[in-house]
Amino acid sequence: MSAEVLLAIAVGIGLSAACGFRVFIPLLLLNLASRVGYAQLAPGFEWLGGEVATILFVTATVLEVLAYSIPGLDHLLDLIASPAAVVAGTLVSLSVIIELPPLMKFAVALIAGGGIAGLIQGATASLRATSLLATGGLGNVLVAILELVGASATAALAILIPVIVIAALSLCGVFFLLRWIVHRRSEKHTTA
Fold first, then answer.
1. Segments of the chain scoring below 50 in pLDDT
2. Which domain holds residue 45?
């Protein structure tokens, strides 16, 4: 596999991770990057860089950001956003991976792109639910702000410096895996 293909996969995974925080911000940033010539879209996905897509993504992003700042409505949106994040994560990965055979490209986009978007969306939905219980919904605005920053920074870095996003995601994955292992071992010692 060439370095260009690996870099495109890294961009796709980074943008997919950002879709787990917010569905439309990564699509908007990819749209803008492609419009100024910074991102190349795969054949068949050129529409993501079009003017109509820009208008739709700006509108959807504004509505999504506003809606997530309303406690109660944010939980309703999580029901919709969870499957939408997987679809968006798969879509952004498909749209930037150019030089792979179609079946391999789709497998990478669905498993890596859709998978990471779904995992992050699930984690943020869980964090929001915990915030609701702990603060009666008042802390959810802070969670929404953190998700907005996370989506924006992750998407921008995925386009500008994808290697950093992959390294950060890998470190987070290792951290949570080690935390899970320690938790499982402490459970075994407690029950023994």
1. none
2. 3-166
